Amino acid sequence: MRHFVRISIAVAYAIVLFASTTTRHGLADELAGVTVRLEDDNSPATIRVTSVARYKVKISVDSHAENKPLDIRVELPISGRDAWPIANVAAFDSKGRPLAVRRGGIAWHRLLITAPPERGAVIVQTVQATDDRPQLPPEKERLATDSNTGLNATICKWRNDRRAALSIRFDDSHPTHLSKAIPILNTYGFRGTFMVNPGGHSPNNRQRSAFEEHRAKWEAVAKRGRHEFANHTMHHRGAKNDEEMEREVGDAAKAIWKLFPQKSKLAALNLGGGTQWVTTRTLQYYLDKYHLFDASANSTGMDDAYGKRVATFRRLLEAHIDRGLWYKVHYHYIGKGLSSSEANFRAVLDIAKENEPQLWIAGMADIHKYQTERRSARLAIENDGSSRVNLRLFCTTKPELYDQPLTIEVVVPKSWLANRVMVRNLEGKAIATQSKQSNGQTLLYFDVAPRNGLYRVGVE
Ligand SMILES: [Zn+2]
Q1: Cα 302 to averaged position of ligand 1 atoms, centre (Å)
Q2: Predicted local confidence at residue 65, as pLDDT
């Protein structure tokens, strides 16, 4: 920590020097990866940027002869050791009043802040999350060993001990999702994630939305429950202020909750490419309030226009399997003359099918839940004699939102008769298990609810 403070002071000092010697035009400063500049290169105004604390910069503004509001562009680093927690960033004036910030729907780290043409300051900083985040136990606490019997247990990295996860997303509730994507996914037995815009026609537009036009079909898809729906905002048109953003995000969340009345309210959010959002609030405010997680980043766009999509998918899927990671892809429209041809779509699904034994192909919320639940969880073993142990699972995620079962792996002690091992819950009810042989050992797998629980594993 001390080390970091010293660096930022040094950087701030360099910026002050630079600012004091630079010309008044086109000032661009860098500060531990933070870039700040005036949008108007010809403005007589000047800015000076200093680091106040970690994730807090002060932009001092001097308008000089400028009489128009000043547009200040701030870009925050999203990778590396200086990366900011982008969802928690907001801007304030020197009196601590929140400022409206304009951002692109899929570029939340690029802020455009309009300051009045006067001498003053803009503070860009992270704010405390409203929700208290669970403490994350280290990885070794998800592995438990009983020294008495030699039994080992762990929470599998992915469901059913698959090596990696794959989500296949479809944006904009396009009619070809109903006519092509869903029937084709069903023949493969894959679950897709459908980012819908459930809003009706916009006030300035007499046309009905694609979703509204086919509402009955979307409702039928929701009712069958084979696919997941996600929040792509009501109308895919951004928002000019807090109230509009609240409606665009919040009403879409409520529309999806209504389609899945018995299900967890947690869903993926993607504000949409090509949209602009103006809000004084953090993205985290909307995420927390509507039980959303940001799913816009790190996804491979599958539009044919990007070129070599099938080969790219194969290469990146294999890299994610090798590293045991979650691979995300997204489509727009499927069919002749549309963003992805049906042939290319099917070729990608064929590759996924080839790799299915190693892959957990699931909805984005399913995968996000598993990952979050697992990171919050711990396992412990209590010995109960030479042929029985009690396995204790501790979870801190909220069960009403996080309801994705976790898979437990047990390495059966060699001294036990593997075919007589049973798993029971606290009430004594037998839990279904699957077993496999690996390096002369028997591995047992079973699913558990992501909540505190006790499981008896023993020879019967
Ligand atoms: Zn979109």
Answers
A1: 13
A2: 83
